[in-house]
Amino acid sequence: MKLQGIRVVDLSLFLPGPHLTMMMADHGAEVIKVEPPAGEPSRNIGLRKNGEAVWFRNTHRGKKSLCLNLKDEGQREQLLSLIDTADVFVEGFRPGAMARLGLDYATLSARNPGLVYCSISAFGQTGPKRLKPAHDLSIQADSGTVFLNEGSNGEPCSPAMPVADMAASLMALSGILMALLRRAETGKGDYLDISMQDSLVAWLPNALGPVFAEDRSPEVKNERSWGGNAMYRVYRTADGRYLTLGGSEVKFAENLFAKLGRPELAEICRRSPGEQGEAIAYLEQEFSRRTLADWSRWFEGLDVCWSPVRLLHEALAEEHLQARQMVFEDVQGNRHLGVPIKFMDEPAQVNTRLPKLGEHNPSLVNASQEV
Description:
- It holds the Pfam family CoA_transf_3.
- 37% of the residues lie in helices and 14% in strands.
- The protein is an alpha/beta fold.
């Protein structure tokens, strides 16, 4: 596997850091999760199956657990000895916390010059908001993406996905791998300052036309991506379900309206978003005449970007995701998310075993003391 031989020490909690280190574990890295005496919080958040939280199962598989009280000088020394043998160190605390514990980059890199040190925080290590506490919702609100998540009543809705968390996870993974690649040439590690807000804002290129071109906020319901385009929006069906049209290219509009017997409406889809009301009104009325199952049959073979709005359990049971091994079941009947990074050579080998809290203290502490 691609990351075999890489040792990762992970102090992060909740989602961004644990998710990125799980991806590293899936591809062969040895990931040592350092847990506080109370344990990783996600061990006890949300629904459980076979004794473990689903959230924890899908962020901590294949890791080792080292339980330490970092306020205890002796246990902190044990951690320092372990980090001396590590390739990567990940932490997700507020800026300054690691320095107070003597676990800052300057201290650790002096002991281990090849260490790749990754800090993940809400707003980054610099700037006026650096010490402000926040989780995903607050970061999305602060960054303008809750504003973009406008409901039919014109008011902002709570976002369905923790995209600030997940964007930070992927940016951190990318940065760590870049640093490891450079270290192979220089022998020197590096420090990564990953801000969840920075990571989220970096995902906004398609939303920034009004902001960067005209110095204004978008009118959400009239924009191309959020309802202003007839061929890129959500429609209700006769049975109270929904479908989406998700391709605004005019060729798809021509194919759709030709089959509907209204080819002239395709021309309306050449207009700017927010000026396609006639086509939208027609499609709203037309889609409301049949059930989602009827429309699914109607769309078969038609070259149009469309999809049913599936319930989440429907989506994860869908045949294509099973074929892609993005959902699989272990021998105990626990379902897991699969690996999205698929190599032809040296593919990931998922280890679904979960560590008990502090399970690896004896082996890891003894080994660090011997070193």
